[in-house]
Every structure is written in structure tokens, then in C-alpha cells.
From TrEMBL:
The keyword Magnesium does not apply. It holds the Pfam family ABC_tran. PROSITE patterns: ABC_TRANSPORTER_2. This is ATP-binding cassette domain-containing protein. Residues 8-256 form the ABC transporter domain. It comes from Roseospira navarrensis.
Length: 271
């Protein structure tokens, strides 16, 4: 894949914590407009890889290239400014704040008018605030959470809180969004809704997606390509059908049950 078509290039990334090697020489590229999944069993290094892309971890070796620019040494907020959004395996919402205010937090880095300029030119700041609120309302409508927009985030059922966290990540106005187990803990109906939102986010909003997800039915149905990690190493990459039929993937990473492939453990990354 050329740099012109790739929105993200991960080049030989390794990550070590003391004597524990969480990632070892992992390389892959994600194309603009692609929905790319990273899968693997317990402790495979998936979340560690997400953290290297988002800036929470700095790789011990290797490089992360985003939109043709090396971002390996940049902090998470700097990468957000460049267009990388993120959701987390464990919810990171402000429970005491409303849904609307939680989503508005995602717009904070886009505000151009500081306090002084806002005080001197209150009209500009006010118009900017209104424009951001309109964008946030569009996100709320898209994710069908209008009915809870004023509710405190901490009072919501788990599935709705996951949807609010996705809304906050979208509010960053990202070119690439990292989804760490977006459907974990959801029932079937909630998973179907979330899968629909992710597809629309990718196809209609034009946002590239990297997703970690244990539900193999979802992964194989909605992903364009899939990479498989185990013990921090990439052992396969390709189209969903290729991954499903890869003998090494079947035997090393996925349990087999009536011919179907399912994960048997929840993901807990080395940190």
C-alpha cells in the first residue's frame, strides 16, 4: 500500500515493559476509508497496539506514520489535533456530567477562540460555540441518543454509555477512529445497532476505522481487512475470508465450535 493511499502506517513497532515484550516488530497499513480490525486471543497485544497508535504508549522500537507524518513521539492530545479519535475498552466518561457536556468535551481541542479573545470579541466566540453545538447535535441525532442528551452519563445503562463514548470520539472530528471493543458487554440488539453505526461512520462520514472486537461474527461481517496478533506478533493479515480459513489462525488463536470461530477469553493486555 502506498503512502498516498494509507492513512496509517505502523512500521516495525515493538513495545517492552521491563522484561515483558508486549509487541514485537509489528507492521501493517490502513488505507484511507478502510474499516480495519485487529483480533487475537487474551494478551495478544491488541490494546497495547492501540495505545501506541493513540500516543498513550511510545514504542520501544519502530515508527507510527499518520497521514504521511511521523507521530511516534507525539502526545495523545497532539495526535487528536491531527485527527486521531479513540474509545476505550473501559469506559472513560465523566459520570457527573450530562451526555451533551461529555460530547462537548470532545470538541474542546477544536475551539479557536481563547478566553481573552472571547472576552474582547464575544460575538466570534458565541458563533463558534453555536457552530460546535450544531455539530454535536448532528452526532447525537446520528447515534440516536437525543432522548438522553440531558441525562447524567453515570446513570445510563452500559450500552448507552458505550454509545456516548463513541459520540465523544466522533466529536473530535477525526480522520481515523480507534475503537477498543466497542461492543463488549452488549446484548444482541445493542451490538446490531453499534455495528450499523460503525458502518455508517465509515461509509457515510468517511472516517477510517481501526477496531478491536471479540465478536467474530461482527468482525467478519463488517471489516474490510483483518490483522491477527498473538503474544505481540502479527501472524496473519488479509480479507475476512482469508483469516477465517487460515490454518494458523484457527489452531493458534481461535477456538473451533461446530465449524465456527469464536474467542474463548476476554482480552486483558499486558501493561
Amino acid at each position: 500500500m502506498s503512502e498516498e493511499t494509507a492513512i496509517l502506517d505502523v512500521q516495525g513497532v515493538s513495545l517492552q515493559f521491563g522484561g515483558v515484550r508486549a509487541l514485537s516488530d509489528v507492521t501493517f497499513s490502513v488505507a484511507k476509508g478502510e474499516l480495519f480490525a485487529i483480533i487475537g486471543p487474551n494478551g495478544a497485544g491488541k490494546t497495547s497496539m492501540m495505545n501506541c497508535i493513540s500516543g498513550r504508549y511510545t514504542p520501544t522500537e519502530g515508527r507510527v506514520i499518520f497521514k504521511g507524518r511521523e507521530v511516534t513521539g507525539l502526545k495523545p492530545n497532539q495526535r487528536a489535533d491531527l485527527g486521531i479519535g479513540r474509545t476505550f475498552q473501559n469506559l472513560a466518561l465523566f459520570g457527573h456530567m450530562s451526555v451533551l457536556d461529555n460530547i462537548m468535551v470532545g470538541r474542546h481541542h477544536l475551539l479557536k477562540n481563547g478566553f481573552l479573545r472571547g472576552a474582547l470579541y464575544w460575538g466570534l466566540a458565541q458563533r463558534e460555540e453555536l457552530a460546535h453545538r450544531r455539530d454535536v447535535e448532528d452526532i447525537i441525532d446520528f447515534l440516536e441518543i437525543t432522548h438522553i442528551r440531558k441525562a447524567m452519563a453515570g446513570t445510563l445503562p452500559y450500552g448507552l454509555r458505550k454509545r456516548v463514548e463513541l459520540a465523544r470520539a466522533i466529536a473530535l472530528n477525526p480522520d481515523l477512529i480507534l475503537l477498543d471493543e466497542p461492543m463488549a458487554g452488549m446484548n444482541l440488539e445493542e451490538k446490531e445497532d453499534m455495528a450499523r453505526f460503525i458502518i455508517d461512520l465509515n461509509e457515510e462520514w468517511g472516517i477510517s476505522v481501526i477496531m478491536i472486537e471479540h465478536d467474530m461474527g461482527v468482525v467478519m461481517d463488517i471489516s474490510h481487512r483483518v490483522a491477527v496478533l498473538d503474544f505481540g506478533q502479527k501472524i496473519a493479515e488479509g480479507l475476512p475470508d482469508e483469516i477465517m480459513n487460515n490454518p494458523r489462525v484457527k489452531t493458534a488463536y481461535l477456538g473451533e465450535d461446530d465449524g465456527g470461530l469464536v474467542f474463548t477469553d476476554d482480552d486483558e493486555e499486558v501493561a
